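Lab notebook, bench 4. The sequencing result for the construct came back, and we need a structural model before the next group meeting so we can plan mutations. Quick request posted to the team channel:

Model the 3D structure of this chain.
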Amino acid sequence: MASFRSVLTLTNSAKLALSTRSMASHPLAGLLGKLNHVAIATPDLKKSSEFYMGLGAKVSEAVPQPEHGVYTVFVELPNSKIELLHPYGDKSPIQAFLNKNKDGGMHHICIEVRDIHEAVTAVKSKGIRTLGAKPKIGAHGKDVMFLHPKDCGGVLIELEQE
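Done. Here's the predicted structure in token form:
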């Protein structure tokens, strides 16, 4: 029985080493960083903010982002953030989202990248469409680029410069 366990351990270690090696040689290895935030569109920013405050979270004030057509509120978590989004102005993309989702819901996820320009080139080389020709400044004052949800498993993904 002990020899069977040794073989099983050796086999599992070899599989782990093989999978780690194959990930390291992937062309996008090391490109993606940590999850920065999950963005939630909300029809009632005050109510949503109070919900997270009631759970003991640190919640920022609402900040208008006219260039993006949104108000943002950040909910600080120990390992990430939640970004609450509410429409700002008549042409807000969040209003279009809320027209389809009256109660609000998850809008996008944001993943940090070490080099936004390298990341954009890499995803485009994989046939992933971007929502814009070049990165623009996001809510954190850093370059961001959104990836088309139809190319990302139905999820709108925001890449943000670390």
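Residues 1-27 form one domain.
Will bring this to the meeting.
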